[in-house]
């Protein structure tokens, strides 16, 4: 069996999951780790599920600080020590990471970001603008449509987007604001089309095949939902319908309308990516948060299904990690489970909550890895998004553009390992 290995250096004076977790979170003296930051947010008992360990480590396995605890990992390539069964290192492309050509080079880019008024949505807009306007490989132009209910905050995002443009960049940047602000709860196809129309007007459908484009739709807007009731207590049809219309149905309708213009079914279309800002809650249940967990899981699966129905469209499920946003603070204050509130409070106090700008930077960096293959017979309908990753050390992300879940911590650890190899 192919294995990967990583190492933990850990004192022996922690007797249970709780004390070990507290040590990991507070980074007490004597603690040192080469493991990804993910471990700092996990109880010991969660390591098997989160990191695909062959067997979870036991407390008794923790060794003196002068020794190493060796953990065999399946499909874990962040700190690779290749086994004999792996293919030749000649297949490794890590040393060529810095040679990846930007897929938007000299293209006219059309971007829609929902929930762009604050938090991760705003940070994503700024980091994306920085990436698209940076040489070499800058875009020719950017039309960015911002969507949210708070128009004043959207105008602030707009101003910051212009300031995020790379110095002396030749890229033309145009920022649009959807007016009136789209009410996700009362979403309809005509309402979604009206919100997107300013962008459509700049890109007549009969001109799309004549232009070099790179198009992007980002579903960031979301609400946390109820954090008081158990799943079996959520029986109000009105409340449930309101939540899922905003957090599931609206992204589905917006996606359909966006694709109908920029990638009509059965036609050759420019590269197009649909991004879903996902969450660990899409794959793990959290107490008293059935709204959020179910909504995130459904959106995650919607994108995977979209990839099956529309294989020429790239989809990207990105989990940004715990962010210092209004949503996190809402959980910190309003969650009915005192243990969950304490967890959130400790996470924030010990520096485990990320700034949106950092997670957005990592999210945007992976967009460079989405390239379309070449059809030898010139048939554009056979083009497929392909992931530019190392077939040895990043093999598990070869199909990321079909909806494979990418977590911030995993992406960061890959980045750090690559930087170490390139140094």
From TrEMBL:
Q: Which GO terms describe its molecular function?
A: sepiapterin reductase (NADP+) activity
Keyword tRNA processing annotated: no
Any matching Pfam family? adh_short
This protein's GO CC annotations? cytoplasm
InterPro entries associated with the record: Biopterin_syn/organic_redct (IPR051721), NAD(P)-bd_dom_sf (IPR036291), SDR_fam (IPR002347)
- Name under which the protein is recorded: Sepiapterin reductase
Highest taxon, organism lineage: Eukaryota
The lineage, from the top, is:
Eukaryota, Metazoa, Spiralia, Lophotrochozoa, Platyhelminthes
Q: Where in the cell is it found?
A: Cytoplasm
Q: Where this protein primarily resides, as one coarse class?
A: cytoplasm
GO terms (BP aspect): tetrahydrobiopterin biosynthetic process
Q: Which UniProt keywords apply?
A: Cytoplasm, NADP, Oxidoreductase
């Amino acid at each position: 069996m192919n294995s990967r290995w990583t190492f933990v250096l850990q004192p022996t004076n922690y007797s249970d999951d709780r004390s070990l977790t507290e040590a990991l979170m507070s980074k007490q003296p004597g603690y040192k780790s080469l493991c990804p930051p993910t471990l700092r947010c996990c109880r010991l008992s969660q390591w098997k599920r989160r990191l695909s360990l062959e067997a979870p480590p036991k407390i008794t396995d923790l060794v003196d600080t002068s020794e190493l605890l060796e953990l065999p990992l399946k499909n874990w390539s962040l700190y690779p020590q290749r086994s004999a069964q792996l293919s030749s290192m000649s297949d490794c492309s890590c040393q060529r990471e810095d040679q990846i050509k930007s897929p938007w080079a000299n293209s006219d880019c059309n971007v829609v970001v929902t929930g762009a008024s604050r938090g991760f949505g705003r940070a994503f807009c700024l980091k994306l603008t920085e990436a698209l306007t940076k040489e070499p490989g800058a875009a020719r132009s950017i039309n960015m449509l911002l969507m949210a209910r708070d128009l004043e905050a959207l105008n602030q995002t707009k101003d910051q987007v212009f300031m995020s443009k790379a110095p002396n960049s030749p890229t033309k940047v145009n920022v649009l604001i959807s007016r009136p602000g789209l009410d996700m709860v009362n979403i309809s196809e005509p309402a979604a089309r009206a919100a997107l129309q300013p962008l459509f007007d700049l890109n007549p459908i009969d001109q799309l095949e004549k232009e070099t484009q790179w198009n992007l739709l980002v579903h960031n807007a979301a609400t946390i939902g109820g954090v008081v009731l158990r799943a079996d207590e959520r029986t109000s049809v009105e409340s449930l319908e309101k939540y899922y219309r905003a957090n599931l149905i609206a992204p589905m309708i917006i996606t359909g309308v966006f694709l109908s213009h920029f990638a009509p079914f059965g036609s050759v279309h420019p590269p197009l990516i649909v991004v879903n800002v996902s969450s660990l809650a899409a794959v793990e249940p959290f107490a008293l948060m059935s709204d959020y967990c179910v909504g995130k899981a459904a959106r995650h699966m919607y994108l995977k299904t979209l990839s099956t129905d529309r294989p020429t469209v790239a989809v990207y499920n990105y989990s940004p990690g715990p962010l210092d946003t209004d949503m996190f603070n809402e959980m910190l204050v309003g969650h009915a489970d005192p243990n969950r509130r304490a967890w959130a409070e400790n996470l924030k106090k010990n520096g485990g909550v990320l700034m949106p700008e950092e997670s957005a930077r990592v999210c945007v960096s992976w967009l460079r890895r989405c390239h379309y293959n070449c059809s030898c017979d010139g048939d554009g309908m056979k083009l497929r998004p392909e992931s530019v990753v190392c077939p040895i050390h990043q093999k598990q992300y070869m199909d990321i553009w079909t909806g494979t879940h990418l977590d911030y911590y995993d992406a960061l650890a890959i980045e750090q390992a690559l930087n170490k190899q390139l140094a």
